[in-house]
Amino acid sequence: MARVRFSYIDAAVVLISIAPLRNVPSQRVVNRLLDDVQARLADCRRAWWTIRRTTCLENQWAMAREGRLALRSRRTRGAKQIIEAGYDPEAERLHVTFHDRTTARVGMRP
Fold first, then answer.
1. Which pLDDT does position 79 carry in this prediction?
2. Cα separation of 107 and 98, whole Å?
3. Given phi > 0 = left and psi -120 to 50 = alpha, else beta, which region is 12?
4. Most buried of 21, 85, 101, 107 (most Cβ within 10 A)?
């Protein structure tokens, strides 16, 4: 089984782990899997949102600038804590509400 991570704030796709019971896939096959997820990222985001109704961004620290969101590993100067994040799959747009009640909208399309 392969576990892949993607985000609602950037186009990064990362292999978290792979634990096949037998027939370990080659690096080429793993790379193809990641390429396929990258090519269908909008579909992955839509499916996750439809099923889970979460972006997994709540309680994260982030900085919002010019329609972009940058996560921080901890509270830093200028960062705000996310209390709610919603996703509009049709517009491919993320809407974030911070602890101070300010909001940010981030588009996913290039």
1. 97
2. 17
3. beta
4. 85
Question: Would you list the domain boundaries of the chain?
Answer: 2-52, 61-107
Residue with tokens 């704030």: 9
Does residue 87 come out as left (phi exceeding 0), alpha (psi in the -120 to 50 range) or beta?
beta
Which amino acid belongs to residue 73? S
As a whole number of angstroms, the distance between CA 92 and CA 63 comes to: 20
The model's pTM is 0.86
Of the candidates 56, 5, 54, the one whose C-alpha atom is nearest the C-alpha of residue 33 is 5
Judging by beta carbons within 10 Å of its beta carbon (0-12, 13-18, 19+), is residue 96 exposed, middle or buried? buried
Tell me the H-state helices in the chain. 27-39, 41-52
Hey, what are 46's tokens? 């839509």
